[in-house]
Amino acid sequence: MAEESIVAKKSLFERKMSVSNVIVALALCLLFGIGIGSVTDPLRSYINEKIENAAPTGDLGDKNFSLYWEVYNTLRQYYVDPTKLDADTLFYGSVKGLVESLGDAPTAFFDPDETKEYKKSQSGSYSGIGAELDYVNKMVVVVSPFDGSPAQQAGLESQDIIVKVNGVSTASKSLTQVVSEIRGEAGTTVTLDIVRPRENNKSYTLEMTRGNISAPSITMKETQDGVAIVKVSRFTEATLAEWVSKWNVVSQDIARQYENGNITGVVIDLRNNPGGYFDAAIVLAGDFLPKESVVAYQREKSGQDQIFATTTTPRLKDIPVVILVNGSSASASEIFAGALQYYKRATVVGEKTYGKGTAQVVVDLKDGSSVHVTVSKWLLPDKEWLNPENPITPDKEVVYDYDQRAEGKDNQLDEAVGLLKK
User: Fold this and answer.
1) 315 DSSP assignment
2) Domain boundary at 214, 249, 269, which?
């Protein structure tokens, strides 16, 4: 996941679909019905252009959707600021409201601009400050700054809440709006006002210079006391094949060093990893678990469970492993950690994970917008559903010490390395 990107709405796996009239099913269920003929302002022609005379599908029940137009006309008649009654804003806002009524954060509608930003966040290369952001309880929260990024150098930390960008409040703004304000050309500056919950909501103003950000998904760090450190920041690249290619290079390096006696174990650091391609987690697990080991079950709407198991002969089947996780480790990273923990193949160290055990289909719509729809649940190998009430609990819980971080130390990583040295 890339900077200023959308964590909570990211899929466990990404299946692109071309569905020409999905927007009709979304929009018409809310917008159309009795009373459409009474609308004479520009919104009518705007919507007609969107739907191309298609009809709604599904059961609308006995709802009288003339209420929508009644509210709309009331706003046009009385609302104090007519400039806000833009047809585009009202139309997409209506569809957003339809989707958000489900109360499922990962199920979300992105308008064309938001869809473009989302796709940029998947590419891993852009100009900005280098930080992952989330939208939690209507607040923009920092998941994690990238190592060496302008955000990290300026002192931005995980869980910081961004309240202003260049002096302008983020209140009532969408995550995408905040993202677009933070991003900019490399070499330009941006100022963030943040609140830090872990310091009793102390306020800070941080100025940083934007740079060209290339977010690595997998990094093989220098060994520490004979232990290899592998940072897996996300399970996405431009394609799944590209991610697998990067992992193959790292896994071969680990296998060679272990065989030569240069290392005695490996730490897989999944802290602040928001997930990505689910299949990438299966590939990763396949290098540590025996072939045909069940990694997860996918429970569909029908209640049926589909089994996902490793398909390859493991290249790292003997090397000792410790996995690092925290509260921002989500989805695919949790599936991987949970599987290795279940089989007692690795010791999990750190803090409880995010608990995102649902999968979304990303449907690209013909006008450039998209809808992310939760289609299934992920169950761990013991068939327990992964969710916020049932996240991955570390075998050894170690709370991150921010005071030590100021001294250049990482107490969680030190604990992981220490366990492997034993």
Assistant:
1) S
2) 214
Residues 29 and 66 in one domain: yes
Count of domains forming the chain? 3
Q: Let me know if residue 249 belongs to a domain.
A: yes
Reported pTM: 0.73
Query: What are 20-48's pLDDT values in tens digits?
Result: 333 333 333 333 332 223 334 445 454 44
Helix (H/G/I), strand (E/B), else coil: 53? coil
Q: pLDDT digit string (tens) for 155-199? A: 998 889 999 999 999 997 877 789 889 988 899 999 999 999 989
For 90-107, write each residue's pLDDT tens digit: 889 899 999 989 988 888
Between the alpha carbon of residue 218 and those of residues 4, 26, 144, 246, 357, the distances in Å are: 19, 38, 15, 7, 23
* Whether residues 206 and 224 fall in one domain: no
Cα 161 to Cα 192: distance, rounded to the nearest angstrom: 10
CA of residue 140 relative to chain centroid, distance: 13
Domain that holds residue 76: 19-104
Give Cα separations from 302 to 58, 377, 398 (angstroms). Answer: 18, 11, 39
Does 2 reside within a domain? no
For residue 6, tell me if it sits in a domain.
no
